[in-house]
């Protein structure tokens, strides 16, 4: 008899546990499966380039720039001077980067920057002039046209800087 009571008792425990698990499983909220759409665009890898830090090659070759004059009037040589001797004895070539200045020694390198557009050019002084009181520097035609905003103008406002070795 004891065996039957034990078996019955075990059977009751199993029934109780199974009913408890059914109650617990019925109380769980169902989890809804959702699908996340895959990204159809191909992802590119980011490429990081290392750049070499370059020094200012102009400053290395020619020396440091020293400001000379701001708001200076610049003009260019007329074509009729092409081929004539300059004050330094070198024939004037309107297709080279040269300039005439009243004070700088011959061979002095200048950076002339147009204030209207920020364009600049490096010229070498090889002549005296300009002989107009309001003008500070005369540029060769090539140098003037390279930095001119308006190609029809003959005068512009510039900033002059001198290369010091």
UniProtKB/TrEMBL annotation:
Q: Which CDD domains match?
A: DPBB_RlpA-like
Please indicate which superkingdom the organism of origin belongs to: Bacteria
Briefly, what is this protein's role? Lytic transglycosylase with a strong preference for naked glycan strands that lack stem peptides.
What is the protein's species of origin? Flavobacterium hiemivividum
A biological process term (GO) from this entry:
peptidoglycan metabolic process
Documented EC number(s): 4.2.2.-
The terms under GO molecular function for this entry are: lytic endotransglycosylase activity
The keyword Signal is annotated on this UniProt entry: yes
Q: Which UniProt keywords apply?
A: Cell wall biogenesis/degradation, Lyase, Signal
* Name of the protein: Probable endolytic peptidoglycan transglycosylase RlpA
Task: Describe the family membership recorded for this protein in Swiss-Prot or TrEMBL.
Answer: Belongs to the RlpA family.
Domain RlpA-like protein double-psi beta-barrel residues, every copy: 72-159
Q: Which segment of the chain is annotated as a signal peptide? A: 1-23
> Does the record bear Signal in its keywords?
yes
Extract the NCBIfam families matched here. rlpA
